[in-house]
């Protein structure tokens, strides 16, 4: 089974000049999921495409077709995927560059950038609609994987902290998007259906490990963060997860995104 990493790069062109290239070059993962790529295929930095070719990576990209320079997800694999699917069957959402699946032998790897909401605004309405449609899709995908005997992992920025352990200031965020009761119920319902929160399974009683910190103030230095970047896996794959780490930068000025990569090592 592979090692899988996921990272919201907060713009691949900016991240490429801040340390993303070095991180990819040093990765021993078999699959890397990226979110907020914010680039069309011909806008991906040449330095990155050259690096991927040098290290044997295959890039599958699903950019936003509705908002140039926004959203966009990608999956890097060591071999060309057997199949690629963009979106999950919703005409409005599928063109936004928010969901991509690739099949490699025995495994489906998905990269997700779930809509970010703002309580009491149209953005939250859009996020809630996404949750409704995507939640149904994930249940279907789980059931299909069980029938097919094929494992699946959905990686990415879910923009949801599922429990009080998943953000430092949970008391002051009760009414903020990302920690709303109905969002957390949505996540819990997926786990009840059979999906496994791999990082939480491996770190059951710890705060975090956080994967996002605002650039404002000293949030990163004080580890005032949120755990919103997840790997959601089918049970067979989750049972093989041996180690999960957030690859936190050593210092604030060494960050190449406001998120940190989340890496899980799965063993046979």
From TrEMBL:
Feature type site, description Interaction with DNA substrate: 259
Active site: 113, 157, 259
Cofactor note text: Probably binds two magnesium or manganese ions per subunit.
Site note Important for catalytic activity, residues: 229
GO MF annotations in UniProt: double-stranded DNA 3'-5' DNA exonuclease activity; metal ion binding
Domain Endonuclease/exonuclease/phosphatase: 6-259
Keyword field: Hydrolase, Magnesium, Manganese, Metal-binding
Family statement drawn from the similarity comment of this UniProt entry: Belongs to the DNA repair enzymes AP/ExoA family.
Name of the protein this chain belongs to: Exodeoxyribonuclease-3
Pfam families: Exo_endo_phos
Cofactor: Mg(2+); Mn(2+)
Site (Transition state stabilizer): 159
Gene3D superfamilies: Endonuclease/exonuclease/phosphatase (3.60.10.10)
Coiled-coil portions: none
Binding positions for Mg(2+) per the UniProt entry: 8, 36, 157, 159, 258-259
Gene Ontology biological-process annotations: DNA repair
């Amino acid at each position: 089974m592979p090692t899988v990493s996921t990272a919201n790069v907060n713009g691949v062109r900016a991240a490429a000049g801040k340390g993303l290239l070095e991180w990819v070059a040093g990765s021993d993962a078999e699959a890397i999921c990226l979110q907020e790529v914010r680039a069309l295929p011909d806008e991906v930095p040449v330095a990155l495409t050259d690096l991927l070719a040098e290290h044997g990576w295959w890039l599958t990209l699903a950019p936003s077709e509705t908002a140039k320079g926004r959203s966009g997800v990608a999956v890097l694999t060591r071999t060309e995927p057997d199949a690629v699917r963009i979106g999950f069957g919703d005409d409005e959402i599928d063109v936004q560059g928010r969901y991509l699946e690739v099949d490699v032998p025995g495994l489906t790897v998905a990269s997700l950038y779930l809509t970010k909401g703002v309580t009491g605004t149209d953005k939250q309405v859009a996020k809630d609609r996404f949750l409704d449609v995507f939640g149904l899709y994930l249940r279907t995908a789980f059931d299909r994987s069980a029938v097919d005997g094929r494992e699946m992992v959905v990686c990415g920025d879910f923009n949801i902290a599922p429990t009080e352990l998943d953000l430092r200031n949970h008391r002051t965020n009760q009414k903020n998007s990302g920690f709303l009761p109905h969002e957390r119920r949505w996540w819990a319902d997926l786990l009840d259906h059979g999906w496994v929160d791999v990082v939480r399974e491996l770190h059951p009683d710890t705060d975090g490990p956080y994967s996002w910190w605002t650039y404002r103030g000293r949030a990163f230095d004080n580890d005032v963060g949120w755990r919103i970047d997840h790997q959601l896996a089918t049970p067979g794959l989750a049972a093989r997860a041996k180690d999960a780490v957030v690859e936190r930068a050593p210092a604030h000025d060494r960050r190449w995104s406001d998120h940190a990569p989340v890496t899980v090592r799965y063993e046979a």
